[in-house]
Design goal:
Chain lengths: ~170, ~170
DNA sequence: TATATTGGTCAACATGGCTGACGTAAAACC
DNA sequence: GGTTTTACGTCAGCCATGTTGACCAATATA
């Protein structure tokens, strides 16, 4: 401990910085999701419902298997959530035009309303953080987050951007 | 749809940007935790154990109630996790010097080993992302993440930095 | 001494992951 | 046309991790 050399000091700082990142990630994710969680609790839903609603809203007509690859959960888990959402009138499905085995998923009016309520809530939090931090910071934020992704996820996101109908 | 004004276009872009942030946050957190999760699964532990180990390692001698405020869970949930960790020899406790009701928590050798394995794994991911993105991006990343926090959390982190014995 | 604080325990419950097994309809292939 | 594969669903049960509520013990403090 006494004979700390510059390199030791540098490594120490580096570890501190990395830990700061790890912790910020934990706290930010917790706070970022917490607000939506309380709205969901009112409707007797959880975060799993939110994720399904979000990505169906984002990709109307998505197939079950595509939703599964986005969420990385088992079909049994998703099925439970989807059945609930359909029963409660947030989601509908219709058979695929070309492949009639597929069940294309859509939000209902109610589903759209809930999705937009949740997304605008989280969006406001992001907007405030972005505004405070400034444009350059936002760019850095997104670059680092992308750097944290698995390569599979990067491919997946790239693919999604291609097929997106924007 | 036909008479979209500049303001409409701007809002559209803004919403796209916000959604990109929301999604990046989801995917990055998932991938960032996923790697550690698989190590934990080997030891029959989950993310809850990881969080406890991490913050005990970070604050040796932390009291149960301080750990509770960091984690924001009930004492029953924490108690279950802590009992397991103590039984399996990752954590020890000793009574507080001034207040003997307190049980100060410490990692054992085994606990330290596991913590450092997990943290260095996540640290490597962060280090790679930081290296790729560059110093300015890292600063922006941290600024935006801090902007996403609840004000309570900000206070809490500030307080922790003060009492930290660095 | 009376009260508040720190921490633990037991019981019961919900959510949301998981595995495994099995079924059905439709597409794709030989 | 018959077989295989794919897309999806269901039932059953398990585990981790969160929750409430009730209750208890030791200790600090006013």
């Amino acid at each position: 401990m006494a004979d700390v050399k510059p390199i030791g000091k540098a490594l120490f700082l580096r570890e501190e910085e990395l830990r700061r990142g790890i912790e910020l990630m934990f706290f930010a994710y917790r706070d970022f999701t917490g607000e939506a969680d309380s709205i969901l609790a009112e409707q007797n839903m959880g975060r799993a419902h939110h994720r399904a609603i979000y990505f169906i809203g984002r990709n109307p007509g998505i197939t079950v298997s595509d939703l599964l690859t986005i969420l990385c959960i088992t079909k049994q888990s998703l099925s439970r959530v989807l059945s609930g959402l359909m029963q409660d009138g947030y989601v509908t499905q219709k058979p695929g035009a070309t492949d009639r085995r597929q069940r294309l998923l859509y939000l209902t009016e109610t589903g759209i309303a809930l999705e937009s309520r949740l997304t605008s809530l989280q969006g406001r939090r992001f907007a405030a953080a972005y505004r405070e931090a400034g444009v350059d910071a936002v760019d850095g934020f997104q670059r680092v987050l992308r750097g944290l992704l698995d390569s599979d996820t990067i491919d997946q996101i790239a693919q999604q951007d291609q097929t997106s109908d924007i």
